[in-house]
Design goal:
Elements (H helix, E strand, L loop, with lengths): L1 H10 L3 E10 L3 H8 L11 H4 L4 E4 L9 E6 L2 E10 L3 E8 L3 E11 L5 E10 L6 H43 L5
Antiparallel strand pairs: 1-7, 2-3, 3-4, 4-5, 5-6, 6-7
Helix pairs in contact: 2-4
């Protein structure tokens, strides 16, 4: 039985890929400020919800190309670096437990109704000897759910931030000045 499980595990693909998209009714400026600055990730990132033991450290610079964050939890440790950034896309690399490399992109597409589609694409390869295929299946399952949660969190935070900015702007325009 154990030999069968090992053989099946060796035949399973070691690569995995996750792709999720959400429509956000907020300005692209707000969405990008929340996603391209690691100091802002605590507002929407799902990892604290998934693993309350996780502790993050953000290095300088916290935003833009070269921005870096690391973490440690009861499940291991990792680090993430923004490697490319332009008006439409952020590219990042993640290293988990000094051996497992994950590459990802966040793509921002403005729609005709001024909403923004945020697409998260992640791909990786499991490298654990003898059980890589099972780890790839598990990683894809966890990431599918966690990324969906993160994008929903991002949508909520961005839309609330956008509403707050509009209301503050409206209040400042309607306030009377004393002459």
């Amino acid at each position: 039985m154990l030999l069968t499980i090992i053989i099946i595990g060796l035949m399973l693909p070691q690569n995995y890929s996750v792709n999720k998209t959400i429509e956000v009714n907020a300005s692209i400026r707000i969405i990008k400020s929340l996603t391209t600055d690691f100091d802002e990730w605590h507002k929407w990132s799902p990892w604290q919800q998934v693993d309350p033991s996780i502790k993050f450290a953000v290095s300088e610079p916290s935003a833009g190309i070269g921005a870096h964050q690391s973490w440690i939890s009861k499940w291991g440790h990792g680090e993430m670096t923004i490697t490319a950034l332009n008006d439409r896309k952020m590219v990042f690399n993640t290293l988990l437990n000094n051996e497992h490399i994950v590459q990802g992109t966040l793509t921002f597409t403005t729609n005709s109704n001024n909403s923004v589609n945020v697409e998260c694409h992640i791909e990786g390869q499991a490298t654990t000897i003898l059980v890589s295929g099972y780890m790839a299946i598990f990683s894809e399952y966890v990431l599918n759910n966690t990324i969906a949660l993160g994008l929903n969190n991002l949508k909520t935070v961005a839309q609330l931030s956008d509403i707050q900015n509009v209301m503050e702007s409206h209040d400042s325009q309607n306030s009377t000045s004393k002459n």
